[in-house]
Amino acid sequence: MRIQIIGFGVIGQGLARVLLRKEEELRQRYGLEVSVVSITDISGTAHAEEGLDLRKALSVARETGAIVNYPGAKEMSGVEAIEEIEAELVVEATPSNIKTGEPGLSHMLAGFKAGKHVVTSNKGPLALKYRQLVSEAERNNVEFRFEASVGGAMPVINLARETLSGDRITAIEGILNGTTNYILSRMTREGLSFEHVLREAQELGYAETDPTYDIEGIDTASKLVILANAIMGIDATFSDVKIRGITRITPEAIRLAKERGYVIKLIGEVKNSHLEVSPRLVPETHPLNVDGALNVAMLHCDVAGEVTVVGKGAGAIETQSAILSDIIAIWKKVKG
């Protein structure tokens, strides 16, 4: 299967490393031989019909920060690469943009128009234009999978759609952002202030230099929209979510909660077509009380009851578990 990688930052490079590591296993278990025929970043596109040397591509990215320095690379945009280079599948791994969905939105639509399957970790376009993207994929008779857009290595979408396909899921609630969970967990354990733990999280790489998307609940809201649409069939967009972040949580509030047997967590919930992200009191013994940077989702099912899944919600390698599972699922379906 010929693959194009659009976006060669943390996620794109992580995929290249996993494909190198799993090359023989993919061939033996699934008969799947992956050939990455192009890699695009903001600088340009490296392309080879016979497949790129992924070790060299990773070296170029590490040493120069620009894939255009790969031998023979061109100043070609992502859309141009999708339109002009022959491949069966596009992995869209550019950073999320919750304001416009770009450039990921254009990459995905170009992929569908070109008759290519699309796998993505990019939540921005999905949170804004989910219905349009799904419709375009269906119209062009291609597969569109996005497990990595919500929980990293936490397989919540595929679990709901496949393993729980006989159930009607009536509500979803969970912790969908590892950064905020890390901050609240540290505040709970050690009684530290929000500002102190945020600085620590930034130093450790858990939080971005500009942590707004995480701490204001925007990232959680984006993921909640995807779950509401993909699992429950709700035609929601980002603007439908009521959002409140964690910036006003104090050590005193956390202490009072602990005295009553509760912890404070940033919870995203969809129920009765209502989508909300807000700090909530969670009983200490509740399945949603996970520690550190973990994510957790609880699905309320009409037959199975409450089903909870926990996993690492971010990370260059962990996210590849979801991307790779989507690639394999598409390969199985195409191969018949």
How would you characterize this protein structure?
The protein is an alpha/beta fold. The chain folds into two domains: about 1-150 and about 315-335, NAD(P)-binding Rossmann-like Domain (Rossmann fold, 3-Layer(aba) Sandwich); about 160-310, Dihydrodipicolinate Reductase, domain 2 (2-Layer Sandwich), CATH 3.30.360.10. The protein has helices at about 10-30, 55-65, 80-85, 105-115, 125-140, 150, 155-165, 180-190, 195-205, 210-215, 220-230, 250-260, 320-335, and strands spanning about 1-5, 35-40, 45, 90, 115-120, 145, 170-175, 240-245, 260-270, 275-285, 295-300, 305-310. The strands form two sheets. A six-stranded mixed β-sheet has the order 3-2-1-4-5-6, sandwiched between helices. The chain has a six-stranded mixed β-sheet with strand order 8-10-9-7-11-12. The radius of gyration is 20 Å and the shape is globular. The chain starts with a strand and ends with a helix.
